Amino acid sequence: MTGLIQVLGVIFGVVLILVGILESFFFRDQRLHRLFLIKPEDTDAVRMWTFNLGFYNMIWGVGAIIGALMLTGTEPAAGRLLLLFTSVGHVLLGIILVLSERRLWASGIAEALLPAVIVVLLLM
Prior knowledge:
Layout: H1 2-25, H2 30-36, H3 43-70, H4 76-100, H5 105-123
Helix pairs in contact: 1-3, 1-5, 3-4, 4-5
């Protein structure tokens, strides 16, 4: 089971890092505006939050990867806790995303689903 959790944790972390890169560096790309619910004329206004949010996601992603890799290291309990914290955090953030903007329900599900699976597996 640990191997599966590790694979899912690394996938989760990589996805967060990729999303963070899109948010931080490619938010001006009009192909992403529908995903972020922004208009081309608003890119300057949202630059600060997209840039910072992207780095938040990249940092969370690194935490998930480190936690997953630590599961078979010398401190598996620390890895478990780090991955659990990161996963529970993103389950909650997915719920908050949907509650704050219902049009982002698919993004909220995408944000919460994989970490929810990880949480269940970690708590079994």
